[in-house]
Specification:
The complex is a heterodimer of chains A (about 260) and B (about 300). Chain A is mostly helical and about 260 residues long. Chain A has twelve helices and two strands; from the N terminus they run ααααααβαβααααα. Helices cover about 60% and strands about 5% of the residues of chain A. Chain B has about 300 residues and is mainly α. Chain B has a domain of about 100 residues. Helix content of chain B is about 75%, strand content about 0%. The chains are: A mainly alpha (about 260), B mainly alpha (about 300). Chain B: Pfam families: TPR_EMC2. Chain B: Its main location: endoplasmic reticulum.
């Protein structure tokens, strides 16, 4: 069938290799541009504090059995109190002087991230910068590849593939008779775009900024809401059963000492 | 905290460097990694690298890290000229850097110019109000001036935001203990136990404070925490062993008046006394008579 499809060496010299080189260079360039544009964003005090509260509450939940019941109750109230005033005040709680527990999130205050984004110009700016360094070069290179190299076969992979790979490898060629192991130039572009990550991490160090897939994950997980984790933590703290572990330790200590003496 | 293996390695390297065996840079890296305070050695060996252009150029970008390390060590040793030199070199390389600003503040502190240091720190905090190191420096400064209540205030402010920083909790606990504010210290130690439940030192310190507070309930709790320390250390902690003995005696004295005979049927105290005897026999035989006499007084040893 298409066994005798012979590729010109000029295609290798003028399409295949230049395309790969250009992709690598653009990747490197993008890395440096995004490095230049990156601003060290100062974290918001409230967000930092919320994160710390969550960690502390998690510690309390995990190690609750290591402190006496009284102390645990005082802390639980301190964390998840809603209306009741602190009765079992410990010195720390008095100085903090709060009515609502640390994990309490007032209703309605849980703003959705979308609104937060628009209210905070910094965040929008950040998004734009990310887009600048990601989408614009990609569109440009895609347009460039499309314009100059579209519609012909650029390479042949040395093993046969099934028909299903046609859409992956022969993007831009609408011929069903061509063997699937031939790669069109546009597909070569896509293969480079997603396949060069390993090379970049080799050239630019482990945490390079060109990690597209990771960034896409970030985009989808963008709506991280700290108030949600706060209330989740509060719920799980509410159901913790306190059982002081220390009495057990006395017996364990006894057996340890018996072993030690003998 | 430094593990035993790491400390052994550090000491070995230090010995090697002291005797001219080379490896100064590795030693300095290890010191930095373990965050230990061996300022004199760091100053000596760091300077020997910095003053040797050949060795210095070999470090490349790490040269500046070394400058910083030596500057801090020099401040610690009151070699203010050296520190000044290092900081000026760093300033020339990184103007506008906050990290250098911190160093300058520390230099001012070392000179005893508290007011100016305070000003420098507040300027830095204006730029970034969440700089943990500067907050901690402020606490240290208040402490150095003997202004303990100020230190407590700063620490509390710091902990309001960074409440999962257990080192700060420990510092606060120790300050409270030094001021005999045991109730507050109890809270801090509970916090420490919560964040690292398997560290016997916190259990021990908590038990100490509870024992000092006194009262039947606290004493019983203290005994339990001494017991957990024994469990966690495998009976090797002498203080915990003594603690169990003393707690038992104190509990006995307190509950003697009451008819309620809730004598816990445990022979933990006698076991602890025997363990103490064994330890003393092995480690300090000359003190053994003293120990047995004391334990007999406490009626823990027949």
């Amino acid at each position: 069938m298409a066994e005798d499809l012979v590729l010109d060496t000029a295609i290798r010299d003028w399409v295949l290799i230049p395309l790969s080189v250009v992709m690598v260079l653009i990747g490197v360039l993008r890395y440096f541009v995004s490095k230049l544009m990156r601003t060290s964003q100062l974290p918001d005090a409230k967000i930092v504090k919320e994160g710390q509260v969550v960690i502390r509450a998690r510690n309390l939940r995990a190690a609750a059995n290591f402190i006496p019941v009284k102390s645990f109750r005082a802390r639980k109230v301190y964390f998840s109190n809603e209306d009741i005033q602190l009765e079992n005040c410990d010195p720390q709680a008095i100085t903090v002087d709060i009515e609502n527990g640390l994990l309490y999130v007032p209703k309605g205050q849980a703003q959705n991230p979308q609104a937060q984004m628009f209210s905070d110009p910094n965040m929008a700016m950040d998004m734009m910068k990310k887009n600048l360094s990601m989408i614009i070069p990609q569109t440009l290179t895609f347009a460039w590849v499309n314009f100059f190299f579209s519609g012909f076969v650029a390479a042949k992979i040395p093993f046969p593939l099934t028909q299903r790979f046609r859409s992956m490898l022969q993007n831009g060629i609408d011929l069903s008779t061509v063997d699937v192991s031939y790669v069109s130039s546009r597909s070569w572009y896509f293969l480079n775009l997603f396949g060069l990550r390993g090379l970049f991490s080799l050239i630019l160090g482990e945490e390079n900024a060109t990690d597209d897939t990771q960034r896409m994950m970030q985009m989808s997980g963008f709506g991280f809401d700290p108030s949600k984790s706060l209330s989740a933590e509060k719920d799980s703290l509410d159901i913790v059963q306190h059982e002081w572990a220390l009495p057990k330790f006395e017996q364990r200590a006894e057996s340890v000492l018996r072993k030690f003496i003998s | 905290m430094v593990g035993a293996a790491e400390e052994a390695q550090l000491n070995r390297l230090e010995n090697q460097v002291d005797n001219g065996g080379g490896g100064a840079w590795e030693y300095l890296c290890l010191v930095r990694k373990l965050k230990v305070r061996r300022s004199e050695k760091v100053l000596k060996h760091g300077l020997s690298i910095l003053n040797n252009p050949n060795k210095r150029s070999k470090l490349g970008g790490d040269e500046w890290t070394l400058h910083e390390q030596v500057a801090i060590a020099a401040i610690d040793c009151q070699c203010l000229d050296v520190a000044k030199g290092c900081i000026t070199a760093l300033q020339a390389k990184f103007p506008e850097s906050k990290r250098i600003g911190r160093l300058e503040g520390m230099l001012l502190e070392a000179k005893g110019l508290w007011g100016e240091a305070e000003k420098a720190y507040s300027r830095l905090l204006e730029e970034d109000s969440l700089d943990q190191v500067i907050h901690k420096r402020r606490v240290a400064m208040a402490k150095a001036q003997g202004n303990i209540s100020g230190a407590i205030e700063w620490l509390n402010k710091y902990l309001e935001i960074f409440m999962s920083d257990h080192d700060a909790w420990r510092e606060l606990a120790e300050i409270y203990v030094s001021l005999q504010m045991y109730k507050q210290a109890v809270f801090c130690y509970e916090e420490l136990i919560l964040s690292q439940p398997m560290v016997p030192l916190y259990h021990l310190a908590y038990a100490d404070v509870l024992y000092t507070l006194g009262g039947l309930e606290n004493l019983q709790a203290a005994k339990k925490y001494y017991a957990s320390t024994i469990d966690l250390t495998g009976g090797k902690n002498t203080r915990a062993l003594f603690g169990v003995c003393l707690c038992t005696v104190a509990i006995g004295q307190l509950s003697k008046g009451r008819s309620k005979e809730d004598k816990e049927s445990s022979d933990l105290q006698s076991l602890a006394a025997m363990a103490l005897e064994k330890t003393y026999k092995q480690k300090a035989p000359s003190k053994l008579p003293l120990l047995t006499a004391n334990l007999r007084n406490l009626k823990l040893l027949s």
